[in-house]
User: Fold these one by one.
Assistant:
Number 1:
Amino acid sequence: MKYIKSKKKLIGITFLIIFLTALAAFTYYVSDYYHADKTAISALKSTESYNVMDTTNAITFTPTGNKSTTGIIIYPGAKVQAEAYSVLASKLAENGYTTIIVKMPFNLAFFGVNKADDIIAKHGKINSWVIAGHSLGGVFASEYAINHQDKIKGVIYFAAYPSSNASNVTFKALSIRGSLDGLTTSKDISENLNKFPANTTFITIAGGNHYNFGDYGVQQGDNNSTITREEQQNKTVSYVIEFLKNL
């Protein structure tokens, strides 16, 4: 009897140690993330062109010059602070599109794949929604769109590709990556080509890389770009606007 009790106690202690070890490893993993740089932080201020609302759940850029009926939701890349995409969002807002960057739990879209639900519910005046995502954020933006085709009219993959089959969906898509991207390679795109929506436009920015879509410094594993971050983002915005106009 004592042997059985001791064995159960030992098993309990073992599971507790495993749990605490896993918890410590996860805490360490999520605490080490890419922070928005000074350029990104400076774009968080309202201007004559747009108003910025920064809450615990999202950062909203609302154009002041017109009543936007098209909204863009951005899912950040894995372990990248949401604020890092404020420059990209501000440029889209300057062009008349309400743009909302979602703040993900632990900076991982995996834990907030349905966060777009709250965004859409709070912006009833917007009748056309496009969801975009960078890197792993693009994977889960795609997942959301696949499961909410009644709400989403377009998906934008920034250095990303779908993990689930989206070839038969009703929405249009835009895929943009840099030619020097070391994390989402041309091979990755080609190997997942059959999963993209049938109506997808593919763009490769010459000289661009992975981390230039945001403003969070240099990302490990990526290649250096031969164009500036500003050039890559400006080209990205131009392609996105063209895509939105043709929805």
Number 2:
Amino acid sequence: MFWGNSSNSGKTCTLQEKIFRLKASTQPSNSCRSLFKQLEILCVSCQDIRSLMNFIITNQEIFQTILSTHNINTRNKHHLHSPNGNLSCLRKSTFYAGMKIFNSLPPNVTILRNDTAKFKVGFRKYLHTHFFYSVDEFCMCEDDL
């Protein structure tokens, strides 16, 4: 959970693909995305995203929602409130990355947040359906299940 936001996480994904290509006997030019999906194997980035979400869901009491910071009924009222700050150590922190990922989830997954078991199943299904290579790719996805 703590190393996923590091500068070496991209190198770890590349290494994982190389190892997988050797084991699966595929060409180096072929993408592993479809093979990972077919075999339901999560890449390192997806595992990092999943561990961050497990942390957020099991520790919900330490995070504030937007609705708890003000009483205005907005469509994002159930998103997690991100603290204001321009420090890079805050922006690169595990808490901030977890909130960013949670706020990027589709509504049909976030409504399951109060039932941990259902949330984990729904989130795992979402990850296996879309299969992301990075947190940025995850945050840009706009597809619902």
